[in-house]
Write a sequence for this structure.
């Protein structure tokens, strides 16, 4: 249940033990319920129930954590961002308002916020500039959401409390990091391309062979899933075992070397790694 | 513990937390030891516990964790526990307290206590550093007017940014942060780009 599009009413309450008048902000449909986790808030004493909106605005800013531009008041209606549409403040004028409880209910009038995440670095897009692949992020966003891109990366968008000197320092170190990361990625790609997949054909008995595939781990594939697909593909047993060098290998029962080779070549092609060598060797049983 | 560390005429040794742990700086699939589905009764208990900690979630907890959903419980290295609802990590816990994941914080930003760091600190926070007081008290930082007590879990925002970038625990109350203004103010639990953030099944 969300409380959007509902007015929230300030209900005067007076606990027996306390002579001070209070208000509780409750959702109209929930008036019968005692609000949970209330927070005592001091509102400047004023006699009418017409709440000092100015003050209220500040309080809501504190509680909601929203900036001033999102909390505005027009007459007696507080407009609090687009999260809680409106808070209408009503009440009998006879009540002296000294304290106001703001219950958590008033703040739960929230529907989930949709955050736009970057498709490259997975951060919310505004944090891309601190990510490691800023250039790629930027290109991605320009394509994905040009309007947001303009908003984020236009010249005027930067307003910082830091001096320009410090700002320059930050961007410099960021640039450094990003450059480093780029180089690292490049190197990784190189080493990926120079790596190779070894398909070993190992004799078990005279006419029976198993196929062991080594060198797959660098390509970021799930070995177990790989074994499973092979098992169902060739209707044999396939498993993941550690070889002599303590590296994972997919071992498939049956002489299926050629089929495996074509499959892996196809897989690498999908990943754009056509240069990777796939070799078949046969191993004699000792 | 404290008396253990007091020597002779030194009345009060200011204890700098020496073993600040970083939960998810390094975290990957290998750190998960057991995975199990959570019984519906346990699920209910989990929900009440979370609502107790964050009362603002009371009306929406059923939306967040529907009755029919599958909740999974991952026990991980270092006694870290993750709770996944329909395949997405919503909570994790190290000790008793349930902590919200950043995805959850992004969805319901108003329901958590918040603090803000200045722009200069973002870089360090995103590499997993604990937050120093000056980053919170400087011009770009922001602390709520009223005091937030020590050990509260807070969500960290950044100057000029709309969304949260980290979740951490206050090592001193916000009033103390304002007055002392040095050393570590917030111990970081979870931040953008850490192991949990990048965690995918």
């Amino acid at each position: 249940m969300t409380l959007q599009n509902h007015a929230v009413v300030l209900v005067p309450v007076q606990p027996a033990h306390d002579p001070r008048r209070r208000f509780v902000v409750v959702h109209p449909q929930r008036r019968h319920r005692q609000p949970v986790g209330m927070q005592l808030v001091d509102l400047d004493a004023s006699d009418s129930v017409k709440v000092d909106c100015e003050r209220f605005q500040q309080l809501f800013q504190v509680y909601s954590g929203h900036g001033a531009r999102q909390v505005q008041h027009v007459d007696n209606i507080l407009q609090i961002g687009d999260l809680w549409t409106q808070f209408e403040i009503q009440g009998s004028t006879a009540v002296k308002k000294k304290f106001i409880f703001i219950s958590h209910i008033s703040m739960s009038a929230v529907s989930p916020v949709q955050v736009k995440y970057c498709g490259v670095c997975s951060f919310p897009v505004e944090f891309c500039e601190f990510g490691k692949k800023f250039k790629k992020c930027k290109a991605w966003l320009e394509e994905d959401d040009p309007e947001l891109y303009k908003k984020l990366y236009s010249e005027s968008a930067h307003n910082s409390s830091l001096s320009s000197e410090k700002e320059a320092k930050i961007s410099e170190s960021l640039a450094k990091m990003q450059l480093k990361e780029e180089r690292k990625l490049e190197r990784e790609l190189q080493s990926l391309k120079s790596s190779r997949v070894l398909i070993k054909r190992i004799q078990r008995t005279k006419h029976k062979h198993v196929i062991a595939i080594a060198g797959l781990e660098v390509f970021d594939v799930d070995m177990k899933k790989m074994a499973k697909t092979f098992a169902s593909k060739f209707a044999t047993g396939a498993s993941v075992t550690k070889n002599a060098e303590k590296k994972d290998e997919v071992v498939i029962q049956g002489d299926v070397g050629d089929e495996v080779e074509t499959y892996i070549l196809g897989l690498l092609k999908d990943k754009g790694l056509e240069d990777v060598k796939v070799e078949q060797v046969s191993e004699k049983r000792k | 513990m404290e008396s253990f560390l007091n020597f002779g005429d030194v009345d009060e040794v200011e204890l700098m937390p020496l073993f600040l742990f970083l939960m998810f700086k390094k975290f990957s699939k290998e750190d998960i030891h057991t995975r199990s589905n959570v019984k519906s009764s346990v699920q209910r208990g989990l929900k009440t516990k979370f609502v107790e900690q964050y009362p603002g979630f009371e009306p929406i907890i059923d939306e967040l964790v529907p009755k029919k959903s599958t909740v999974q419980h991952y026990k991980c290295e270092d006694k870290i526990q993750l709770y996944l609802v329909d395949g997405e990590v919503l909570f994790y816990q190290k000790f008793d307290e349930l902590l919200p994941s950043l995805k959850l914080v992004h969805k319901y930003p108003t329901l958590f206590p918040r603090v803000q760091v200045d722009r200069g600190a973002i870089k360090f926070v995103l590499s997993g550093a604990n937050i120093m007081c000056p980053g919170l008290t400087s011009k770009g930082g922001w602390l709520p007017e009223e005091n937030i007590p020590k050990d509260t879990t807070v969500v960290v925002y950044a100057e000029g940014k709309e969304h949260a970038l980290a979740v951490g625990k206050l090592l001193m109350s916000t009033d103390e942060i304002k007055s002392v203004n040095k050393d570590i103010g917030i111990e970081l639990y979870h931040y953008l780009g850490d192991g949990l953030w990048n965690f995918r099944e």
The radius of gyration of chain A is 32 Å. DSSP finds six helices and twelve strands in chain A.
